[in-house]
Amino acid sequence: MELDHKPKLDGKVAVITGGASGIGRATAKRFASEGASVVLGDLNEEFLATAVGEIEGAGGTAHAVRADASTLDDNEAMFQAALDKYGRVDAVVAAAGLSHAGYVSGEMAERAYDGMLSQSIEEWQRVLDVNLTGVMLANQLAAKAMIEAGHGGTIVNIASVAAKVPLRGAVDYCVSKAGVWMLTKAFALEVAEHDIRVNAIGPGFIETPMTARMASMDESRQMMINMTPMGRLGDVEEIANTALFLSSAESSYFSGQILHPAGGMFTG
Question: 13-259, which class in CATH?
Answer without folding.
Answer: alpha beta
